[in-house]
Amino acid sequence: MTNELIHARIEQQRPGVVVRSESAYDNMLTVETTREHIYNFLKFLRDDEQLQFNFLTTLCAVHYPDDQGRELATVYHLHNWRQNFRIRVKVFLPVDDPHIPTVTSLWPAANWMERETYDFYGVLFDGHPNLTRILNVEDMEVFPLRKEFKLEDGTRTDKDDRFFGRDGHEGREFE
Amino acid sequence: MQVQSYFSQLDSLDGELATLNLGPTHPATHGIFQNVLKMNGERIVSAEPTIGYIHRAFEKLAEHRPYNQITPITDRLNYCSSPINNMGWHMTVEKLAKIEVPKRAQYMRVIIMELARIADHLICNAVIGVDTGALTGFTYMFQERERIYEMYEEVCGTRLTTNVGRIGGMERDFSPAFHQKLKTFLKSFPPKFEEFNNLLERNRIFMDRTIGAGPIGAERAMAYGFTGPNLRAAGIDYDVRVMQPYSSYEDFEFIIPVGTQGDTYDRFMVRQEEIRQSLRIINQAYANLPEGEYHADVPDYYLPPKDDVYTKMEALIYHFKIVMGEVPIPKGEVYHCVEGGNGELGFYLISDGGRQPYRLHFRRPCFIYYQAYPEMVKGSMLSDAILTMSSMNVIAGELDA
């Protein structure tokens, strides 16, 4: 199995569902789809007789505050155990409308993973049986892993990165 | 399923059911997590786990630390086998920075990681013994774990939160004392371990308590995201060390034990056999330990020797840059996983080229499989539920991150 073969199979069986596809830095096939398609697409990846991505390895979100309308990325890692192959599926959501269907009916393992993702980033998994906070306290009002929340007191000046010639995350290019 | 409908019927009967708080601090949970149990006499009707009591926001912390300073965070995930977490993290960064680690360092890592696996499984299995009423084996196995901790001390100076190894290899070569201790351990441990094994493996009381306690089938285990010994006890031979060999695991010969019932006894037996296989791997790695450097030649990432820092300009510059977190990190995203004590421990790292990760997600095996617990204990006795929990080896640090 190769990334090209999987990509071809997806395009043949589910044309137009994948909006972007690339081989990521670690050579894992990374495809992007939309929330309209995600449930059926994951179901297809799981049940297709050639692809057989039977195992949901992990599910998490990433926050890109500067990407207008695509601030929250939900990332699924699937694993085909028979042929030992992995795929990464991403869905980008706007931060003011972070709805996405749940996949708990495909994998019960997604239950707590989705609760954790909600707890950290506020992604709303529609149809989830119990979408409540899991690691943080129930009455917390913010989604703490979003980038706008600084780890330490924002008024502190003794750890200002600019004193070291740096400006947060605007890192240098790799030489 | 019949049991379930019987109990939901009972649910409607007035005054028959009691609510029992198991935890958050209860000696039998071996960690801080709560289960609100609905009990019918001694049988469990339903369980509602609450977790997060020692949540420390590791994923947030990791976004604010240079790469080398994230290693101590990984210590505190599964603290029964910290070295595996440390090495898993180092390998993730090495994958990102495309660092090739010398063979000797890889073998050294394998030895340390397998020692960690033995220590991890020893605690779990000894505690299963304790929960069935056999304390003696536990006291003997803790002495053996102590030998392993002494070896950790020789390699990295610490015992529990090891912070062992560095990005690019090991921090130092094995000391003469380590060689001595490892040789002694490899000789003295197996007979003592078999003694422990003989106390429990065919023990009538132990078997009666554990066989059929908290079973889960292969299909269900897979759907629930099980990995590691708990999955193998259910009959699926998935092991990251074989599926995606890292750190030269492909050089060693070992078998993956599997169970058939997925119950407490099978989980116990799988871990017992894995300890023997880990010993086999250590013996092979130690006998064939290659000559050469114990770290890669990557001055950008690997701290120079302290003597050089005081006397050589180059070394001083590199030392300063690494300590200040100024190392060249490429942009990109990687997923790397290792076979932790409890299963597939994954690191999903997104780098934007900055000195800290843009995003680091830990795939913690405990967190994922513990959600199957209510289903596994439904309809069973309270005492079986306690056993089931200890045999799942839920480690609060890894559970809550």
Give the structure's gist in a few sentences.
The complex is a heterodimer of chains A (175) and B (401). Chain A has 175 residues and is an alpha/beta fold.
Describe this structure in words.
The complex is a heterodimer of chains A (175) and B (401). Chain A is α/β, with parallel strands linked by helices and 175 residues long. Chain A has a domain at 3-110: Beta Polymerase, domain 2 (2-Layer Sandwich). Chain A contains three helices and seven strands; from the N terminus they run H-E-E-H-E-E-E-E-H-E. In chain A, the strands form two sheets. A five-stranded mixed β-sheet of chain A has the order 1-2-5-4-3. Chain A has a two-stranded parallel ribbon with strand order 6-7. In chain B, the strands form two sheets. Chain B has a three-stranded antiparallel β-sheet with strand order 1-2-3. The two termini of chain B are 34 Å apart. By secondary structure, chain B is mainly alpha-helical. In chain B, helix 5 runs antiparallel to helix 17. Helix content of chain B is 51%, strand content 11%. In chain B, strand 5 and strand 6 (359-363) form a beta hairpin.
Q: What percent of the residues of chain A sit in helical stretches (DSSP H or I)?
A: 10-25%
Main β-sheet description of chain B = 3 strands, antiparallel
Uncertain runs of chain A:
169-175
Shape of chain B: globular
The tally of helices of chain B reads 18
* CATH architecture assignment name of chain B: Orthogonal Bundle
